[in-house]
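Morning. Coffee machine broken again, so started the prediction first thing and wrote up yesterday's gels while waiting. Chain of 321 residues, entered below exactly as on the submission form.
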Amino acid sequence: MWKQFLHEYLSFTKKERTGIFILLALIILCLLLPFLYPYFIHHKTYDHSQFDKEISQLKIQHTDSLTDKKYYNKNFDENNYTNYYEPSEKNYYTKPKGEVFYFDPNTASASDWKRLGIRDKTIETIQKYLSRSGHFYKPEDISKIWGLHKDDIERLLPYVRIENIKKEYANNEPSNFQNNNPTYKKPSPQIIDINTSDTTAFISLPGIGSKLAQRIIAFRDKLGGFYSVDQIKETYGLPDSTFIKIKPKLILTNPGVKQININTATLDEMKSHPYIRFNLANAIMQYRTQHGDFSSVADIKKIMIVIDEVFNKVSPYLIVN
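Came back before lunch.
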């Protein structure tokens, strides 16, 4: 039985044996191919010495720039020159050689600061500050100069003499010095008409800047005028809290608005209106094409998408004559 089994399943013809040997040879070749690959394919070698030299040079330059930048932490506000610069907590300071003498930081020249032992970059900062109408009002103000180290401040502070600084008094009380950066003061808000007021009037309202004022005017122009004070709150970017704050200052003496004739207006004319847009304009055009002219503005309620809320909102801007 076993001999018959072996004879039937494990005996091969000459062609089959040849095929098996060839198949085994191919398998072995595939297994050895990755190891033989380097002997047949030679990779091109590159000289990286020049590249490494340039990288090393860049690292040196980067280190130098970081050392210079870390000398002090910048804390300057271009819109507030009284802020100056704050010294860094890290100590990268080397004591300069300089003499001391009495000086006024408001009138001292670059050569005077140089004699005091101040670095060129710090002198340049002081000159820029003074050229932008900056001023030192008291000796301690020099501590706010960027680039002036704590040791320099302690060394120079006893020699600071500021002249010609006068304080103005009102109602027998000393007033604060005028800010070097004059800020715009809003006029006191008045009651304004939302259909006739310009941007200046809107800016006078609390919480309304130039951008919001321009948006209100642009929204009014696109609508063709307001018929209700509440429409102001639909202005893009206007917070509800701001609208509640300014609403008591808003009135509407002339609710007249520019109206669109829905029997003659084109699709482009209607869709440009913020309350109509393309969907409603297209529906009006389709209805007018199929049923003829509208006999009244209320007829647009026959259009499926015109619910009561939409009609109440848009109807003041529509006419049929």
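The two ends are 110 Å apart (CA to CA). Going to sketch it on the whiteboard this afternoon.
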